[in-house]
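Hypothesis: this fold can be encoded by more than one sequence.
Test: take the structure tokens below, design a sequence, compare later.
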């Protein structure tokens, strides 16, 4: 059984599970083994309240949920006895959209999934999480807990996944320490750390390794950026040295927009000015085994959320001969191990693919591989067993058109946030034969949390804004 930063072991699990160790963390009971990983109240007997929808249902009135939990614990205990590979997912609550399907993919690969995360992460509700370790309030304390946990469980995990950029950047601060070497996605002693952590390092590495990349310039002031833009020609792109989900990306069509873009990214002391390329933006998700790509899929970004340069919420699958070559170049350059991806742009005038950015953490589209005959679960299983099999995408459709997918929950969130309720028609099953239905029904508790904690929260915020507007207008 795993051990984390755990205090005061409780002999009897108040969940009523026979095969579950229970611990008391920060004065509250917590189950560190069940896939549900819920906190429970200390009450007399076995009357435990579960927060379900908006009200509490007593254990006596939720037999199905109890039996499901009880059966799940027996299955998990049996699976651990069978010696399945242990995988640890380390993430914060900020990047949960990218990781919603990762526990399911790992579970289908035959892995026991442990989750180490910050508080209020929606992933703790996933039924595919076998072991929920104690949660922390912020990322720095999460890394300290990770260090203590790995010191106590040396060589326990077959694979440790860094789930988001916040955790990745915090881990890089420990560069040179022995505990972080050996399992980090790249060699901590190599230049690959600088390449994956800053856009400046990635720009220079692409130039040295002949990877197609837009003409880019490192600027230290708005004056130098203006001089370069006048010489190179507009439009241009401004990018901060670090950023994710389009947060530090702006486009400028002229000198006035250049100044506004610079101010909107909080006037950084150093930033990248990049020549704008007109084309279709896309993303490629990759599974790499120490620099060797073993599975990948590519798709156009058909629709985005939170602005033009935000994360994708609708994809259209594609193939291109240049992408495999770029993947091989990136693997050779970084020797990356794990789930990663990169953004690119397809210039349809000369049919060229140009790399825009590399993601040293899992992008959100790995579960879509089954629509392109790429099963990442099989790829992960073979990788952990030492079997190297390359899985290339095959984009096909019965209608002759490339398959398109509206991503859940990203696309629904966009419709609610932008009040584009007509676009919700895409979630009617069978409405289009060349669409891939993305909603997950195999994880009902996680689905419920997304619906009632995310979607209803956005609807409530919209309603409150409208009420506030009418009150001000009435006054």
């Amino acid at each position: 059984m795993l051990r984390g930063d755990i205090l005061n072991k409780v002999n009897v699990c108040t969940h009523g599970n026979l095969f579950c160790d229970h611990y008391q963390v920060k004065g509250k009971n917590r189950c560190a083994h069940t896939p549900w990983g819920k906190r429970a109240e200390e009450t007399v007997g076995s009357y435990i309240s579960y927060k379900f929808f908006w009200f509490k249902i007593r254990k006596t009135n939720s037999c199905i949920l109890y039996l499901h939990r009880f059966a799940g614990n027996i299955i998990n205990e049996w699976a651990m006895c069978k010696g399945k590979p242990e995988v640890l997912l380390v993430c914060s609550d900020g990047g949960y959209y990218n990781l919603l399907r990762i526990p399911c993919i790992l579970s289908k690969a035959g892995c026991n999934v442990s989750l180490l995360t910050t508080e209020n992460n929606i992933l703790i509700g996933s039924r595919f999480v076998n072991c929920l370790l104690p949660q922390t309030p912020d990322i720095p304390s999460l890394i300290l807990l990770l260090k203590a946990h790995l010191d106590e469980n040396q060589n326990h995990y077959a694979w440790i996944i860094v789930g988001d950029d916040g955790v990745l950047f915090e881990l890089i601060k420990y560069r040179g320490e022995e505990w972080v070497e050996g399992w980090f996605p790249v060699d901590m002693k190599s230049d690959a750390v600088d390449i994956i952590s800053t856009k400046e390092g990635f720009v220079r590495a692409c130039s040295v390794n002949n990877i197609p990349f837009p003409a880019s310039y490192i600027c230290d002031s708005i004056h130098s950026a203006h001089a370069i833009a006048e010489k190179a020609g507009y439009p241009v792109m401004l990018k901060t040295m670090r950023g994710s989900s389009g947060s530090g990306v702006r486009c400028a069509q002229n000198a006035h927009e250049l100044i506004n873009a610079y101010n909107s990214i909080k006037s950084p002391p150093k930033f990248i000015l990049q020549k704008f390329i007109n084309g279709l933006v896309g993303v490629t998700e990759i599974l790499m085994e120490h620099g060797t790509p073993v599975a990948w899929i590519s798709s156009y970004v058909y629709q985005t959320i939170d602005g033009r340069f935000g994360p994708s919420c609708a994809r259209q699958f594609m193939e291109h001969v240049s992408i495999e070559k770029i993947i091989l170049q990136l693997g050779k350059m970084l020797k990356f191990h794990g789930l990663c991806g990169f953004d690119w742009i397809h210039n349809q005038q000369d049919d060229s693919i140009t790399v825009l950015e590399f993601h040293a953490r899992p992008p959100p589209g790995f579960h879509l591989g089954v629509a392109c005959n790429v099963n990442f679960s099989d790829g992960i299983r073979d990788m952990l067993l030492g079997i190297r099999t390359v899985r290339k995408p095959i984009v096909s459709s019965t209608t002759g058109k490339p398959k398109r997918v509206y991503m859940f929950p990203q696309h629904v969130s966009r419709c609610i946030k932008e009040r584009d309720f007509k676009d919700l028609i895409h979630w009617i099953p069978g409405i289009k034969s060349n669409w891939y239905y993305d909603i997950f029904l195999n994880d009902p508790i996680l689905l419920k949390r997304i619906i009632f904690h995310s979607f209803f929260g956005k609807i409530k915020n919209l309603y409150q804004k409208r009420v506030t507007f009418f009150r001000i207008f009435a006054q």
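The first helix runs from residue 63 to 81. Residues 280-442 form a domain with the D-amino Acid Aminotransferase; Chain A, domain 1 fold (CATH 3.30.470.20).
Hypothesis status: open.
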